[in-house]
Predict the 3D structure of the following.
Amino acid sequence: MNRSIALILILSMPLAFTQAPKQVGPAGKGQHIVASGHLVAPAGRSLEWGARPTDIVLSPDGKWAYTKDNQGITVIDVENWEVHQQRSFTDDQGSSMHGLTLSPHGETLYATTANNRLYIASVSKNNGRAKWKKHIVLPGPKGGDDPSYPTGLALNKEGTVAWVCLSRNNALVEVDLKEGTITRTIPVGVAPYTVVLSSDESTAYVSNWGGRRATENNLTATSSGTDVVVDERGVASTGS
């Protein structure tokens, strides 16, 4: 009896290894298989398209959602829950992981890229579609075409000035949107991620993904030219 049971178990074991692998994507009933092999069921409705969205803003009237992804921007028709428009960045500019905002009246869209650009698009009041108007170059630590990796940004109430985090520069910059120039540079912590302004616009609050600046006695690792405070594993140990 025991030998028969053992033989059945041995013969059945290969079946577990010969099953077809699960494919990443929709799995029915609103469920999805993700790259790790886990089955997830997101709350609410899901909308899929061929990109990797990282940031999102909503139009003032709530009709359009603008997302930033690895290719550019995607406009979503909220009521019909469908992709309305996709527009890529030009000049081979990829997208940074954060940094997307609308002007106070929703007529202009601003997005940062993974290199050194702040892209500006006009937005139609009639159909929500976006059209690139121009871009502003935000140079990196070495100037010129050196990447600054701009991330989060905030606008003043008049929509004439943008405050942009330059991750590789470890700085917050003030940008004159009409002239397309940087008018002020303020050193902050390491790898600034996003910025918000106080209601009277007298103070800017900046989050620094890489934390505080390193001192002489700190354990550090170099990241994009900056010494970052790390723990024994080599992982950034502070945020600020």
